[in-house]
Amino acid sequence: MLPLPLETSGEQRMQRPHRKSRFGCKICKARKIKCDEKRPICGPCIKRFPNPEEECCFEALSPPVTREHSSSSSPASAADAMTNTLSRHAARAMELRLFHHYSTTTCHTMPLVEEDAGREMWFVTVPTSAFEYPYVYTAVLAIAALHLLGNNPDDVSLQTATYQYIDESLSGYRNELGNINQENAAAVFTAALLLSMSVRLRHRCYGANPPPYTLPLNYLHLQLGIRQVYFETHPFIQDSSVRRYVDLRRDLKPEIKREFLEFPMNVNRNGFQFPHDVLYSTWGALSTNPERNPIYATTLTYLSGLKDGIGFDEEIRWIQRRLAWLIQGIPREFLTYLEEGDPLAIVILSRFYALLKYIDEPWWIQGAPEFEIRGMASLVGEEWKWAMEWPLEVLEVAVRVGYENRGL
Predict the structure, then answer these.
(1) Which residue numbers delimit the Zn(2)-C6 fungal-type domain (predicted)?
(2) What pLDDT is recorded for position 235?
């Protein structure tokens, strides 16, 4: 007779092997109960706690390792794949951080945001274009990174991200320039504005160890490009928010009623005092190429008009915006002289950055006067050092015009 099997209870007969929850929440693991692993809040915690979002907590998932299909897989290749995955995650996290910062903070600080058209531009048009056009999106990320660098000047990750986003935006922007149409015109012009501002703030990317100084030629070229882009996009943006924003600038070009030699260059019409600048009375004798004199004169005339507006005869916010758009009133030939390293052109350009020092309250101007003027002083020869004394003095004595009276 065969032996009978041992009798087992019903509970023993129904018992199944326990499958551990590898990715369950910490609460379920501590209670030794099965977790359904639903993130961010699992089912058992929802049933157990009145505020499960405060209790349920998961361990961070390890990022998956992407392996190449090959006959051999070395530990080094697996480590490289892990590094690439982590890098992609870090890049995505940086993008989210920067776009959130722009949407919640930076957009409230942009030029002409006090006006309805300015708010529409920076609060609505720019984010909307960013979702559709990658070169606008990366330009927005660059602006947000530069804004954050004001409080974190040595943050290498922000510096690196700024370079990357500017490069990506410039690449896409340049590709679009040859195909401006009804659909992309507003985005192209928006990208031009953002890129120009980003390049003007290049000093924020350098931290404590800037490279050897070079003239701000990229910024000046972009400024000239904005003028050309406006002409090309103008037929397509007649009824757009971009056009309404641009229309706010119609009165920004100073009305120059006198030639620059007909009034003293150290005092404006309302008597606002500047340090005395001898360059305006001596530049003609210093010029070694008389054929360039008309371009020098036109540039100095424009700068003197900007200078004449500084004081209390015009709202400070308009002076700020006008000075920020320097190149709109300067001949293209002047930029060519700068590219050649013309010392007289360099010392004339330094006067523009000296004027910026009087109105550098907005973050998108701060730091540029010091960086550019001291850099230009390092470029000119000994025979031109005297011509840099005026802008260097302004860095020490300039008081922000209207800052105390207007609360800007």
Answers:
(1) 24-58
(2) 86
Rg of the Cα atoms in the chain? 30
* Residue 211: CA count within 13 A, CB half-sphere: 4
Give the residue-averaged pLDDT of 286-314: 79
Cα distance between residue 85 and residue 83, in whole Å: 5
**Are 283 and 277 contacting, i.e. CB atoms less than 8 angstroms apart?**
no
pTM of the model as a whole: 0.71
**Of 79-93, 328-342, 353-367, minimum mean pLDDT range:** 79-93
SS3 of the chain: the string is: CCCCCCCCCHHHHHCCCCCCCCCCCHHHHHHCCCCCCCCCCCHHHHHHCCCHHHHCCCCCCCCCCCCCCCCCCCHHHHHHHHHHHHHHHHHHHHHHHHHHHHHHCHHHHCCCCCCHHHHHHHHHHHHHHHHHCHHHHHHHHHHHHHHHHCCCCCCHHHHHHHHHHHHHHHHHHHHHHCCCCCCCHHHHHHHHHHHHHHHHCHHHHCCCCCCCCCCCHHHHHHHHHHHHHHHHHHHHCCCCHHHHHHHCCCCCCCCCCCCHHHCCCCECCCCCECCCCCHHHHHHHHCCCHHHHHHHHHHHHHHHHHHHHCCCCCCHHHHHHHHHCHHHHCCHHHHHHHHCCCHHHHHHHHHHHHHHHHHCCCCCCCCHHHHHHHHHHHHCCHHHHHHHHHHHHHHHHCCCCCHHHHCC
Instruction: Return d(Cα 374, Cα 395) in angstroms, integer.
Output: 10
**Each residue of 294-320: b (16+ CB within 10 Å) or e?**
ebbbbbbbbbbbbbbbbbeebebbbbb
Given a cut of 90, whether residue 330 has pLDDT beyond it is no
pLDDT band at 72 (very low <50, low <70, confident <90, very high): very low
Q: Looking up tokens 């005869």, which residue turns up?
A: 313
283 and 344 in contact (C-beta within 8 Å)?
yes
Q: How far apart, in Å, are the Cα atoms of 141 and each of 54, 98, 127, 148, 236?
A: 32, 6, 11, 11, 26
The position carrying tokens 């007969």 is: 13
The pLDDT assigned to 207 comes to 76
Interatomic CA distance for residues 201 and 365, integer angstroms: 7
Burial readout 103-128 (b: 16 or more C-beta within 10 A, e: otherwise): beebbeebbbbeeebbbbbbbebbbe
